[in-house]
Amino acid sequence: MSDTLAPGAIIGILGGGQLGRMLAVAASRLGLRTHVYEPGADAPAADVAYRVTTAPFEDTAALGAFARSVDVVTYEFENVPTAALDLIESIRPIRPGRNALATSQDRLTEKQFLQRLGLKTAPFFAVASRADLDAALAAIGTPAILKTRRMGYDGKGQVRIMVPADADAAFAALAGAPSILEGFVPFAHEASVIGARGLDGSVAAYDPGENVHDSGILRTTTVPARLSAAERTDAVLIAARVLNALNYVGVIGVELFVTPYGLIVNEFAPRVHNSGHWTQNGCVIDQFEQHIRAIAGWPLGDGSRHSNVVMENLIGNDMDRVPALAAVGAALHLYGKREVKAGRKMGHANRITGPAH
Amino acid sequence: MSDTLAPGAIIGILGGGQLGRMLAVAASRLGLRTHVYEPGADAPAADVAYRVTTAPFEDTAALGAFARSVDVVTYEFENVPTAALDLIESIRPIRPGRNALATSQDRLTEKQFLQRLGLKTAPFFAVASRADLDAALAAIGTPAILKTRRMGYDGKGQVRIMVPADADAAFAALAGAPSILEGFVPFAHEASVIGARGLDGSVAAYDPGENVHDSGILRTTTVPARLSAAERTDAVLIAARVLNALNYVGVIGVELFVTPYGLIVNEFAPRVHNSGHWTQNGCVIDQFEQHIRAIAGWPLGDGSRHSNVVMENLIGNDMDRVPALAAVGAALHLYGKREVKAGRKMGHANRITGPAH
Asked: What is the ipTM of this complex?
């Protein structure tokens, strides 16, 4: 284990949300400490971090002090400003690397990257103008979906075009932001695979999960997913291809559409992923520890799973169901967010449904 | 769930060792925060606590501020000074309650309590003087073991008397501290049961584990233990009897000797217990979360277990084996202690050995 962090080392985490919170807990299991950098107050990760810096990403003095105080830097969300990353990278390594971020931050770049790897995606066209949109609609047809190239998450920054007459409203809704038009994929269901790549280039993956979304937000992930053995293998190979192409270090979440003509890659996230939360109660080494192991240069877990699990997100007023979920012995993972808001991810519950099969 | 802590509430923990560390992590899963009170610097629990007070137990101002800042107080070790507990209890509830502490802090009181409940213990006599020791030895015979009534843990504060001629040296070794002489129990093996009692009086228990000690320190716990169905039931009933008699709230660890003539109670600890660490990877709700659920007034988990587990303590230089253990996918739980010392518990490793049977 050369180039590895020893117990006591400090991992810097950009972003203090629930993913940072669960990364901090996983780091603690390996005897590692965490320093969370988060612009907002009352960050969920702050409750369990060794150290917290509350400062904007534009505060170069705070960023520099943060970087010097840690041994390696990772991030729990993709939209960290480039200038902040440049400054940090001049002081400490960032894992996963900048190319993974740059690729995934832009839907056009991401889709082109996936195509170059020979992976299937939805048909897409870049849209920089109203005329581009007309041309794209003519090529793809309707229904289609217009998405901003940057800053989209949880269904935000995208609008459906069901008939050509919707084009004006859709274009106006995104306020002229650089976008792509994607064709609809008629899929049987959605799945995702959580992969990981170590500092030594080793690759591991968890069994794919089956995802149900509602209004663009993940509701449930069920493991095992309804997939043939061939599809299961394909999912893992897709993750491995992306990981290796990016010379990636850490955990990645790859979203897939399951179709009669094979798996189609929707997008990937260069971080631990909501659809991998089931691993906390289905595996000995969960996705959060897997990510920490990777960026700390430790050996990866092999992704083995002891149980079947249904993960359910607790969103907004779902928090009212916590007493009932606690009473039936569900594994609760609450994020400590001070205020319940509609559409806000407040926690999740994992239910073991039986031994792995 | 009346009288329960809501997410965001703060649990005070007296003691900042590894048990406090893992309690803090469990609390975070339920959206609760922790405030750790610990006299020593670099406390393992401080890495993952929301707040830390570093002050001696004699600092009444610090103790008062600590108590007022939290919603309920628990402890991770039994030897908190009585005056500190008195002060805290005047401000906030302490769970488990003072009677559990008072009973378990004194080996004589504890043994008498167990006897009153009709539970089997090793034969014992109080030893306050050299003459008491002679009388006790005459009654019990040798081999026997002389133990201080207070402050014993991990084999400290006890000395074996193999033949009557050892009596002088044994008495001198304990420097005249109030003690008890215990007869040796010829046992097949050691087991323990981790029980819990909720604020509503409900009781739950995990499957008993089988323990191997070396020089008074726990080395491994294996689940399931080699016990008959009747012994398994007895173990749970013993835990329940102790819990109910103490009107207990929280997790308790009860150590047992397995003998041909039934289970003999060695001692109990009014807290999460080293022999319950296997629950972190064998159960959906582990002993740390179970303790937090109990003291927070939440429903208890039912103790169900999905896997067979072998827990191994990593003591002193066992830390050199961490890279090898990480490479074979063991679940590591390291305590973040800055310095490796001989005999010091540095972490533990859980290996799943198969589905529960």
From this structure: 0.92
Contact state of B326 with A7 under an 8 Å Cβ cutoff: no
Residue identified by tokens 């716990």 is B221
Nearest chain A Cα distance for residue B192, angstroms: 23
**Looking at chain A, which residue has its C-alpha nearest residue B280?**
A284
The residues, any chain, with a CB within 8 Å of residue A265's CB and separated by 6 or more, are: A114, A119, A120, A121, A238, A254, A255, A256
Distance of alpha carbon A150 from alpha carbon A76, whole angstroms: 17
Tokens of B22: 């893992």
3 state DSSP class of B200? coil
H or E segment and range at residue B65: helix B60-69
Q: Which of B25, B48, B289, B310 to mutate to test the interface with A (most CBs of A within 10 A)?
A: B48
Partners of residue A337 in chain B, C-beta under 8 Å:
31
CB atoms near residue A177 (< 10 Å) = 17
User: In whole angstroms, what is the distance from residue A120 CA to residue A180 CA?
Assistant: 16
Report the C-alpha gap between B40 and B345 in whole angstroms: 16
Q: In which residue ranges of chain A is pLDDT below 70?
A: 1-2, 152-155
- Nearest-5° angle of CA B174, CA B180, CA B186? 110
- In chain B, whose CA is at the least distance from the CA of A50? B47
Question: Are B336 and A299 inside 8 Å of each other by CB?
Answer: no
Scanning chain A, the segments in alpha helix (DSSP H) are 18-29, 60-69, 82-89, 98-105, 107-116, 130-140, 167-173, 229-245, 279-282, 287-295, 322-327
Which residues of chain B have a CB within 8 Å of the CB of A355?
Answer: 306, 355
pLDDT band at B155 (very low <50, low <70, confident <90, very high): low
Residue B346 has pLDDT above 50, yes or no: yes
- Closest chain B C-alpha to A320 CA, distance in angstroms: 11
Q: What is the pTM of this model?
A: 0.94
Strand A179-183 with A124-127, pairing: antiparallel
Check residue A276 and give its pLDDT: 98
The torsion angles phi and psi of A309, rounded to 5 degrees, stand at: -140, 145
Residue B203's pLDDT is 98
Residue type, B223: V
- Cα dihedral B331, B334, B335, B341, rounded to 10, equals 140
Nearest CA in chain A to B351: A284
**Beta bridge mates, A109:** none
